[in-house]
Amino acid sequence: MNPATQAEVDEALATAVAAGATLLKPAQKVEWGGYSGYFADPDGHAREVAYHPFWPLNEAGLPELSGAVRGQVDQPTYADGCRCGDTQ
User: Fold this and answer.
1) Per-residue pLDDT for 69 more than 80?
2) Are 41 and 47 in contact (CB under 8 A)?
3) Which of 73, 72, 74, 54 shows the shortest CA–CA distance to 64?
4) Domains along the sequence of the chain with CATH
5) Which domain of life is it from (predicted)?
């Protein structure tokens, strides 16, 4: 789950716990610059709720991929001549 703000991360974790989930790790600032926490759903599956300030969400609430991921930016070429994303 990728909320649009840190406050939405806290709200999502609280909602999950109120619905029967188990909080595994409270939300906190993380080394990559975001904010995230974890809960286990009633079946025991771990779930992450994360706000990523460098990965904006579109109108549908889905992350917008960077140009490099979409292939719009030059990809590195390795010593063997293979480029990132090449399929052989």
Assistant:
1) no
2) yes
3) 54
4) 6-70 (3.10.180.10)
5) Bacteria
Asked if 6 contacts 30 with a C-beta cutoff of 8 angstroms, the reply is no
Structure confidence at residue 81 (pLDDT)? 52
What are the residue ranges of helices labelled H in the chain? 6-18, 67-70
Over pLDDT 90: what percentage of the chain? 51
What region does 20 belong to: left with phi over 0, alpha with psi -120 to 50, or beta?
left
Note the pTM of the prediction, 2 decimals.
0.67
Question: Would you place residue 88 in the very low, low, confident or very high pLDDT band (cuts 50, 70, 90)?
Answer: very low
Q: In one letter, which amino acid is 81?
A: G
Across the range 48-57, mean pLDDT stands at: 85
Cα 77 to Cα 36, 69, 74, 83, 84: the distances in Å are: 34, 15, 9, 4, 7
